[in-house]
Specification:
Layout: E1 3-5, H1 12-19, E2 27-31, H2 37-44, E3 49-55, H3 58-66, E4 76-85, E5 91-96, H4 109-114, H5 117-129, H6 140-161, H7 165-172, E6 178-181, H8 183-190, H9 194-199, H10 203-216, E7 218-221
Parallel strand pairs: 1-2
Antiparallel strand pairs: 2-5, 3-4, 4-5, 6-7
Length: about 250
């Protein structure tokens, strides 16, 4: 099992904990290009694949000591750094403990790192389309209630939509693009029918209605379509973000 991490995870402590398991845990982590002086030098060099190491600081040694590890300051862990050029020309630096270049050549890492994207888009759905952070109250029980119902709603939509896949292929087989159900519309359709679904004597009828609505509201998957990543100041409150042409679903 390979664990794939976005930015914010690399560091001596996390790499040490992966490496010191009885069987080292394979991982792939994205490093900020200015994370260390060594990484900055690697980005500016012509090299694309190197073996190097991270050193323990006083902080790292102290934190690991709290976990029961005795790791002297300036201890090192080996690491492999690979440079990946994205489609728009920017550079990503990936840290990994897949050291063997024959088993894991440089060419595989771009596709490997992209495999995390399904999870990234799931977070986007929960935080922005379903507005997970827009809690209806401040008490812990209210926050927990909102959190669990949001996750439940997301999972339920996927379960109801799954049987539509075959019909969707039939409907769109002669179209230029591959189509998918518009989840934003699907959540809006579901919001007034969830309770009825569980108290109705004929839930199959409601499920069929939902699937019909889902198939009436589809959108194309346009390959290579990207939006610029806008860097904004940190938000002080949990506020969902959406594209300007999206209407609130719930």
């Amino acid at each position: 099992m390979l664990l794939i991490y976005d930015r914010g995870y690399p560091g001596f402590i996390s790499i040490f904990l992966h490496q010191t398991k009885e069987i080292p845990q394979p991982f792939l982590m994205c490093c900020p290009v200015d994370f260390t002086l060594g990484i900055k030098a690697f980005v500016e060099s012509d090299q694309k694949d190197i073996l190097t190491h991270f050193r323990s600081s006083k902080y790292s040694s102290a934190e690991l000591y709290k976990m029961g590890y005795i790791v002297p300051v300036e201890s090192v862990v080996d690491i492999r750094l690979v440079k990946v050029i994205l489609d728009e020309g920017s550079v990503e630096v990936l840290a990994t403990n897949l050291f063997d270049p024959k088993l894991n050549p440089l060419a595989v890492f771009k596709d490997l790192y992209f495999m995390r994207w399904g999870i990234e888009t799931k977070y986007d759905t929960l935080k922005n389309q379903l507005q997970l952070e827009a809690f209806s109250g401040q008490k812990p029980i209210t926050i927990l209630q909102d959190f669990y119902i949001t996750v439940f709603l997301s999972n339920l939509q996927q379960i109801i939509a799954k049987p539509c896949d075959q019909q969707l292929e039939t409907i769109t087989e002669k179209r230029k693009h591959i189509y998918k159900i518009n989840r934003n519309v699907a959540f809006g359709v579901m919001k007034n029918r969830i309770v009825d679904l569980f108290i109705s004597y004929n839930p199959e009828c409601i499920l069929n209605q939902l699937q019909t609505f889902f198939l009436q509201n589809i959108e194309p998957e346009r390959p290579g379509r990207k939006y610029p990543r806008l860097r904004k100041c940190c938000r002080t409150k949990g506020k969902y973000q959406a594209l300007s042409n999206y209407k609130r679903a719930i």
